[in-house]
Specification:
The complex is a heterodimer of chains A (305) and B (187). By secondary structure, chain A is α+β, with helices and mostly antiparallel strands. In chain A, 34% of the residues lie in helices and 24% in strands. In chain A, the strands form three sheets. In chain A, strands 1-5-6-14-13-12-11-10 form an eight-stranded mixed β-sheet, with helices on both faces. In chain A, strand 3 and strand 4 form a beta hairpin. In chain A, helix 2 crosses helix 8 and helix 7 packs antiparallel against helix 8. Chain B is 2% helix and 52% strand. In chain B, the strands form four sheets. Chain B has a five-stranded antiparallel β-sheet with strand order 9-8-7-10-11. In chain B, strands 14-13-12-15-16 form a five-stranded antiparallel β-sheet, with no helix packed on it. The chains are: A alpha+beta (305), B mainly beta (187). At the A-B interface, helix 6 of A face strand 3 of B.
Chain lengths: 305, 187
C-alpha cells in the first residue's frame, strides 16, 4: 500500500502529465476497458470477462477516435495482461498513451524529451531525482537534459551482442538477447531511443521508406528500464490486414482464439498519417520516486488482497 | 507438471532426472515481445549452480521430494548417520552433503532429512539450537576497551561473536540460518 506521501507524489505526477498534454491542445479521452475484440497480438494474454476481454492497451479505441477526426488525444488508463508479474510487471498496470496526427516517430522522440523534462521539473523532492535533471535509479545516474541518444536496433546488436539482428531473429533469440545482453546497457547515463525494429516486430508500425526491412518503431530506455514504445502508425489497411492475419494464424497454432478487427481496418484509411506511443506510468513513477519495483508505486496491488 | 509461469524463487523442479531449486528469479518481457523467465538454479544434489532463461511453453516435472523427521546418531569417518525414530530405519549423509550444517549438528538432534525418491540429499536443522561454549576468554568486569562482542568457540568447533558476559561452559542459543548469537540459555 502506498503511503500518503507516495500517493501525493503519484497524483502530482499524473497532474503534471495531464497539464503537459492539455497545454498542447490534446483531448483527454476515456475509452472502454472491456471490449468484445482486441488487436491480435500473440505475446499478450488478455483476461476474459463474460465473453469479452479486459483490454491489454487502449490502442484499438484510440485509433478509431483518430479516424473519427481527432487530431491529438491522450489517455491515462489501466491495462490488464495475464501472467505478467515481476519487478517491472503487474497484471494490472497504468498506461499513458497518446497520438498526434501528421507526426512520425522522430517527432514523438523529441516530444518524449520535452515531456520527461516537464515532469521532472514538477517533481522536486522525489527520491529518484538528485538534482533537477539527474535521475538516480539503482546503479544508474541518468542526465535527463536533451538531446538523448538515438540508437538503431542493428547498431545495438553490433555494440552489445555477439550476433547480428538477423541471426538472432532466425534463431528465435531476439527477445532473449535484447533482455539479457542489450537492455542492461541502455540509458545508464542518458536516456536512449532504441529504434528501427525488424518489420516483423512492429505489427502496427509503418515500414521505413528508405529501409523497408525495418519498422518505424522505437522504445525509450531510462536506466535500463523500458519506459515507452512508440511508432509511426501503419495507416495502410491492406498491409495491416496481412499483418493481423499472420498474427491470427500464429495464435491459432498456439491454440488461442483471435478475430480480425474489421471495424478498425475499415476506418484505418481515414486515420491518415499519425504517430502514437504508450508509456508505462507506473515505471515512470518508479524511476522518479526511487522505488525498486512496480509494486512500490501503485496505491494498492492485487497481491495485497 | 509445472509451466514456466509457475517459476518463482524457492520452487523445486526436476530437470534431466535431478532436483533443482530456483535461487533467483526475474520475469521480463520486452515491449511487443515474448515472456522470458530468467532463473538461477542450484542442483539440490551436487550444489552446482547455473542460469537459464525459459519461455512460456517450457514445462518441468515435479521432483519426488519428501521430508522426514530423523535423529542424528553418530559419525563414522565421513558418514553421518541418522535414524527415523518411528521406523528405526537408518541412513547416512556425507560430510560434503551436510556442508555448513555441521557447524550446529550435535548428537541426538532432531532434523528434517530431505529425500529425493529413496535417496537422502539434504537436512534442515531446527531454526534455533542450544550449544555449549567450550572456549571463551574470561569476562573482565570494568573492561573499558569499548568492545561490544568477543569471539567464542562452541562444542561443534564453530566460532562466533557473542556479548562479553558469555563465559566458558555457558549454553547459548544460535540461529542456524545466520549463525548469529541469540541469547544465553539458563539451565
Amino acid at each position: 500500500m502506498l503511503s500518503p506521501k507516495g500517493l501525493r507524489q503519484r497524483s502530482d505526477l499524473m497532474q503534471a502529465l495531464r497539464s503537459f498534454f492539455l497545454e498542447r491542445d490534446y483531448i483527454e479521452v476515456d475509452t472502454p476497458l472491456r471490449l468484445p475484440i482486441l488487436i491480435p497480438e500473440s505475446h499478450l494474454i488478455p483476461f476474459t470477462s463474460e465473453g469479452c476481454f479486459l483490454h491489454t492497451s487502449p490502442e484499438i479505441c484510440m485509433k478509431r477516435l483518430l479516424a473519427g477526426g481527432c487530431e491529438r488525444i491522450f489517455q491515462i488508463c489501466h491495462c490488464f495482461r495475464q501472467e505478467e508479474c515481476g519487478r517491472l510487471h503487474q497484471t494490472e498496470f497504468t498506461m499513458l498513451e497518446w497520438y498526434h496526427k501528421g507526426w512520425d516517430y522522430f517527432d514523438l522522440m523529441r516530444q518524449c524529451e520535452e515531456l520527461i523534462g516537464w515532469v521532472a521539473r514538477r517533481a522536486s523532492g522525489f527520491a529518484g531525482l538528485v538534482e533537477g535533471d539527474l535521475l538516480r535509479w539503482q546503479d544508474a545516474r541518468v542526465r535527463l537534459t536533451p538531446p538523448w541518444e538515438r540508437l538503431t536496433v542493428a547498431e545495438a546488436f553490433q555494440r552489445y551482442a555477439d550476433v547480428s539482428v538477423m541471426d538472432a531473429l532466425r534463431a528465435d533469440r531476439f527477445d532473449e538477447i535484447l533482455v539479457t545482453e542489450i537492455e542492461p546497457n541502455l540509458g545508464q547515463t542518458r536516456p536512449v531511443f532504441l529504434h528501427d525494429y525488424p518489420v516483423e516486430l512492429g505489427s502496427l508500425a509503418r515500414r521505413n521508406r528508405n529501409n523497408p526491412e525495418v519498422a518505424e518503431r522505437f522504445e525509450l530506455y531510462v536506466a535500463g528500464v523500458e519506459l515507452a514504445n512508440g511508432f509511426s502508425e501503419l495507416a495502410d489497411p491492406l498491409e495491416q490486414r496481412q499483418r493481423f492475419q499472420r498474427a491470427i494464424e500464429q495464435m491459432q497454432r498456439e491454440g488461442k482464439t483471435a478475430e480480425m478487427p474489421e471495424k478498425l481496418l475499415a476506418e484505418l484509411e481515414r486515420m491518415g498519417e499519425a504517430a502514437g506511443i504508450a508509456l508505462g506510468l507506473d515505471r515512470l513513477c518508479m524511476l522518479l520516486m526511487g522505488c525498486d519495483d512496480l509494486a512500490g508505486t501503485a496505491p494498492l496491488i492485487f497481491a495485497e488482497f | 507438471m509445472y509451466t514456466a509461469s509457475d517459476l518463482r524463487k524457492g520452487l523445486k523442479i526436476q530437470i534431466d532426472g535431478e532436483p533443482y531449486i530456483v535461487t533467483e528469479f526475474d520475469f521480463s518481457k520486452p515491449g511487443k515481445g515474448q515472456a522470458l523467465y530468467r532463473t538461477k538454479m542450484r542442483n539440490m544434489i551436487t550444489g552446482v549452480q547455473f542460469t537459464q532463461t525459459y519461455r512460456s511453453n517450457d514445462k518441468f516435472d515435479r521432483p519426488n521430494l519428501e521430508e522426514r523427521k530423523m535423529q542424528f546418531l553418530y559419525t563414522q569417518e565421513n558418514e553421518y548417520h541418522f535414524m527415523d525414530t518411528s521406523s528405526y530405519e537408518q541412513i547416512f549423509l556425507t560430510k560434503e552433503q551436510l556442508g555448513d550444517n555441521l557447524n550446529f549438528l550435535i548428537d541426538n538432534m532432531e532434523v528434517a532429512v530431505l529425500f529425493f525418491g529413496e535417496r537422502a540429499i539434504d537436512i534442515t536443522l531446527p531454526t534455533f539450537v542450544n550449544l555449549e561454549v567450550t572456549v571463551a576468554d574470561p569476562w573482565a568486569k570494568g573492561d573499558t576497551s569499548g568492545s561490544d562482542t568477543k569471539p567464542v568457540t562452541v562444542q561443534t568447533g564453530f566460532q562466533l561473536q557473542v556479548p562479553p558476559f558469555v563465559e566458558q561452559g555457558d549454553k547459548i542459543q544460535i540461529d542456524t540460518r545466520t549463525g548469529a548469537y541469540i541469547t544465553r540459555v539458563k539451565e
